[in-house]
Write a sequence for this structure.
């Protein structure tokens, strides 16, 4: 048994994989050679059990820069000094899904607003934040056409440009990072179709709409062609893609609420469904994760990798071939110890398989003075191992 962890986002640095937990507050790293998993620390000035505190990572020289989703601050971790720092978000008003993605350009990181009011640029060298005021003007111009967030979550970058896509409209918004100027561009997509998600590949941006149609936008020559209408393979209201990933051969369609992966081989004009029952277990009532998959990435060849919360492992998909990693990711004893020693009581979604009835036992163990005061460093391990024995 082990505490389940959501890998919200990660970055590989040489032979180590650094990642942010999505179901609690914590930065971890895993040695890809030895399989050793280390807890680096809590993000300061945030709740110990903060959900989705940070949702993206960028590295600028020796610093990791974290994108605040629920968090109140931009977090920074210095890889050389091995310490955290942070910067308060300008005009922070709270809320969910403030910033989901970020883009590194030169020595700066751009934070793409989702529900946040401001588009901000952080200079790592200078240590200051600049609000791109033109964004607010642009947002007001289209506020009547969009209900909440101005743009969808998925974006694409190429050289000095960020390509974003407007909610409920067939418009692209471009940001030139050399000039910090925005441009709105109408796309040749039927006006009754809404863009759901995009993926960049081979100097083109591939788009899927709410009508399950896939378009390829050659943004260099400004030409759009329809690649496939998925309605000939699936019922229109039956499936909706949250993510699209394109390779030299395949288009993968991910709905994070469903295990199976829809795939289209556009070189052979073949559509098929990858059945994942053999590799991913069903959701269970005491594991509160709505999503099956996190930290989805494309790697070389035609491979797609996904982190499965319910397996605690990465799964690799290549066409019809599926493999599951032997490496398991979980919350470490050190992490649990530090949380318990601070009297940070858990809910079911933090300790995975632990049933809610065991929370009373946790509180009882922590309340024992010999653990609370004399053995504070080891209290997490004591509680953790005690609960394992009780649950077995």
């Amino acid at each position: 048994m082990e505490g389940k962890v959501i890998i919200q986002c990660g970055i590989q640095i040489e032979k180590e994989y650094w990642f942010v937990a999505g179901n609690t507050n914590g930065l971890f790293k895993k040695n890809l050679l030895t399989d050793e998993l280390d807890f680096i620390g809590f993000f300061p000035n945030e709740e110990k059990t903060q959900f989705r505190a940070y949702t993206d990572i960028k590295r600028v020289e020796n610093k990791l820069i974290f994108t605040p989703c629920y968090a109140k601050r931009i977090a920074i971790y210095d890889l050389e000094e091995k310490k955290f720092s942070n910067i308060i978000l300008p005009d922070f008003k709270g809320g969910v899904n403030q910033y989901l993605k970020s883009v590194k350009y030169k020595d700066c990181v751009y934070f793409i607003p989702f529900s946040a009011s401001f588009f901000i640029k952080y200079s790592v060298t200078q240590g200051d934040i600049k609000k791109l005021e033109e964004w607010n003007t642009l947002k007001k111009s289209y506020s009547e056409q969009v209900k909440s967030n101005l743009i969808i979550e998925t974006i694409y970058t190429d050289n000095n440009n960020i390509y974003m896509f407007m909610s409920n409209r067939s418009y692209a918004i471009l940001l030139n990072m050399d000039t910090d100027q925005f441009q709105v561009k109408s796309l040749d997509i039927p006006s009754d179709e809404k863009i759901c998600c995009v993926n960049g590949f081979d100097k083109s941006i591939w788009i899927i709409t709410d009508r399950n149609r896939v378009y390829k936008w050659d943004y260099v020559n400004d030409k759009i062609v329809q690649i496939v209408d998925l309605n000939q393979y699936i019922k229109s209201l039956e499936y909706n893609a949250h993510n699209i990933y394109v390779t030299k051969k395949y288009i993968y369609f991910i709905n994070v609420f469903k295990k199976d992966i829809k795939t289209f081989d556009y070189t052979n004009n073949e559509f098929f469904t990858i059945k994942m029952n053999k590799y991913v277990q069903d959701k269970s009532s005491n594991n509160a994760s709505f999503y099956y998959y996190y930290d989805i990435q494309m790697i070389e060849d035609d491979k797609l990798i996904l982190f499965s919360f319910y397996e605690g492992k990465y799964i690799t998909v290549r066409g019809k071939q599926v493999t599951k990693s032997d490496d398991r990711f979980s919350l470490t004893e050190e992490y649990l110890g530090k949380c318990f020693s601070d009297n940070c009581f858990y809910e079911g979604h933090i300790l995975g398989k632990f049933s809610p009835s065991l929370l009373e036992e946790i509180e009882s163990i922590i309340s024992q003075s010999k653990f609370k005061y004399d053995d504070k460093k080891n209290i997490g391990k004591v509680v953790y191992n005690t609960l394992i024995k009780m649950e077995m």
